[in-house]
TrEMBL record:
Residues 399-603 form the Histidine kinase domain. It comes from Methanofollis fontis. Pfam families: HAMP, HATPase_c. It is found in: Cell membrane. This is histidine kinase.
Length: 604
């Protein structure tokens, strides 16, 4: 069996393509889900940190309102709380020694400001008959106010050793502003709630630094950036900036305590969001790890499935290759799976039908071989018979041409002699008889030319066109022919002169004795073009398409046989050219005929 043509095209295995496609789908799906999960968690973390910063901003804003507006009412929660200072002082005091009150007074003065009157006394417990009522629980502050607006706070605190009682009295004048140390402790509490809080700095409405609540001793000459200050003052609202390099964000809060307060202050609250970025990066790494693990696991599962699917496909391919090499008795192996089983059955059925078809073709081939042998013998026999018949016909034609030519020659000679001896009407009869004999000679000549045309087996050779044309012109001295000569060399044979002879005679037959003929030769891109024109009656447009067919004659009663132009077409076609009929004057058939034909040329 002939082998199939080798295909050099390289194909990618289907399983590889399926594996790559499935891997891409799983990768894109898992990657998209991981990205969505990461973005969602990132938004949640950012939202949580934003809420904490908003709450912290609220605490600091309330503390600043107190600083700018003073003590609004007797409300324990809004007063500066000395608890931390007193507690630290008591813890550091010795149990048996009398505590130092000067340090405590100094620290409380820093808390409540220089205008506050602070009195700290130490009383011996034995000097107080009701000392037993003072426990070691944290004391309750007693508040009172006078008509002139003064506020007083007092408390009694039992020392750890139980020997001394601490008496604290604090008086605040009217409209006294809360000192900066109050905000310092407020900020400290805010930092305990929100560790991200890094600094709280206060600026005036011109953007100049006033104080730092996280570091009261800070005396920086820092100013708010002009663009930020302009935005705050124009919009009258809070704004913020971020520094990605240090993972910090600064919120600028505009504090206005009311119409009676001085110009608004601007508080710059800076948060360190390093922990937020670390949490977001941790979530990102976790999602990346999950994504890669999912892709790896998906690729592992896909690889296993494709190997499971590919095993029966490879088995079928191997069996098909065995069958393709000519073993039609080989059967496809059975594998698992309904689809593969149906495919195996279909291939086995196809191979069985193919085997039956090949057997029938072999039988038909044998039959055709027998018929072909018989046909070849019949064709050879018939060809031999046709060859003999052709030779016999040629013999008869040669005899006829020879004998008829001899008879025509004698007839022409006698008619010429008779014509000379006759006169009048009898001379005209002789002239008509002479023309008929000449026509018979022309017919015999054309028949001979046609025979040579069909039987011509000679090879074409280079022929100089000018001598051929001039020889034919010399044979017709009775016709006016205009020709300027040419140096063209064409591929033709000895019958080329017949083309010009028939065209010249055709012009004379249809145009009469006064007809003039023009012969021109010119070089064209596809060869040599020869133009033979006359001033005769021309060729009608309806006759041009069939004028080169056999026995086609014009409308005039010319003595032609209808074979001249057919001979011209046959010879030109044999030479590899083409011939056509046109008008000498374009659009005027009555102005004369123009026969144009082409010949293959050679360099001169």
């Amino acid at each position: 069996m002939p082998s199939a043509p080798h295909n050099t095209r390289k194909y990618r295995p289907f399983l590889h393509t399926a594996m790559i496609s499935a891997f891409l789908i799983i990768s894109i799906t898992i990657g998209s889900l991981s990205a969505l999960s990461y973005l969602q968690v990132k938004d949640e973390i950012s939202g949580a940190y934003t809420d904490v910063m908003d709450q912290t901003d609220g605490m600091i804003r309330e503390a600043m309102v107190l600083v700018m507006g003073g003590w609004p009412s007797i409300d324990e929660e809004m007063y500066a709380d000395p608890t931390a200072i007193i507690e630290r002082h008591i813890i550091n005091a010795s149990g048996s020694s009398k505590p130092d009150t000067r340090t405590l007074e100094q620290q409380l003065g820093e808390l409540y400001g220089s205008s506050a009157e602070i009195s700290v006394d130490v009383v011996d417990v034995i000097d107080l008959p009701d000392a037993a009522k003072f426990g070691r629980v944290w004391p309750e502050w007693q508040e009172s106010s006078t008509n002139d607006g003064e506020i007083s706070r007092s408390a009694y605190i039992l020392m750890p050793g139980g020997m001394y009682l601490l008496s604290i009295q604090i008086r605040l004048p009217e409209d006294e502003k809360i000192p900066a140390l109050y905000q310092y402790y407020t900020v400290r509490r805010a930092q305990e709630i929100n560790p991200m809080l890094e600094s709280v700095r206060v600026f005036d409405s011109d953007g100049h630094f006033v104080m730092d609540f996280t570091e009261p001793r800070n005396s920086s000459d820092e100013t708010i950036p002009p663009t930020v200050l302009e935005e705050i003052l124009i919009t009258g609202s809070d704004t913020g900036t971020a520094d990605p390099a240090t993972h910090t964000t600064t919120r600028y809060l505009m504090i206005d305590a009311g119409p009676e307060s001085r110009e608004p202050w601007i508080v710059a609250v800076t948060y360190n969001l390093q922990k937020q970025y670390e949490e977001i990066n941790a979530v990102l790494m976790l999602n990346l790890a999950t994504c890669l693990l999912g892709i790896f696991f998906g690729a592992f599962v896909i690889l296993g499935l494709l190997r499971y699917i590919g095993r029966p496909i490879n088995a079928i391919v191997d069996d098909v290759e065995i069958i393709a090499r000519g073993d039609l008795d080989h059967r496809i192996r059975e594998t698992d799976g309904l689809e593969f089983s149906r495919l195996e059955q279909s291939i086995n059925l196809m191979v069985r039908h193919l085997k039956e078809t090949i057997e029938r073709l072999k039988e038909s081939e044998e039959t055709v071989r027998i018929y072909s042998g018989n046909l070849e013998g019949m064709v050879e026999k018939r060809t031999e018979q046709l060859q003999l018949a052709n030779e016999e016909v040629n013999l008869y034609i040669d005899i006829l041409l020879h004998d008829i030519n001899n008879a025509n020659t004698m007839t022409l000679a006698y008619l010429e002699l008779l014509k000379e001896d006759l006169s009048g009407e009898q001379r005209q009869y002789a002239e008509h008889a002479l023309q008929g004999a000449k026509k018979s000679v022309a017919i015999i000549k054309n028949v001979g030319t046609i025979r040579k045309t069909y039987e011509n087996e000679t090879a074409l050779r280079p022929i100089r066109l000018d001598p051929v044309i001039r020889e034919e012109i010399a044979r017709r001295p009775d016709i006016t022919i205009h020709y300027e000569g040419t140096g063209a060399v064409v591929l033709a044979d000895d019958l080329l002169g017949e083309v010009f002879a028939n065209l010249i005679i055709n012009s004379r037959n249809h145009g009469g004795a006064e007809t003039e003929v023009w012969i021109r030769v010119r070089k064209e891109e596809d060869g040599i073009e020869v133009i033979v024109e006359d001033n005769g009656p021309g060729i009608p447009d309806t006759l041009k398409p069939k004028v080169f067919e056999r026995f086609t004659r014009g409308q005039s009663r010319s003595p032609g046989t209808g074979l001249g132009l057919h001979i011209c077409r046959s010879l030109v076609t044999w030479y590899g050219g083409a011939i056509r009929a046109e008008d000498r004057l374009a659009g005027h058939p009555e102005g004369g005929a123009s026969i144009r034909f082409t010949l293959n040329d050679l360099p001169p």
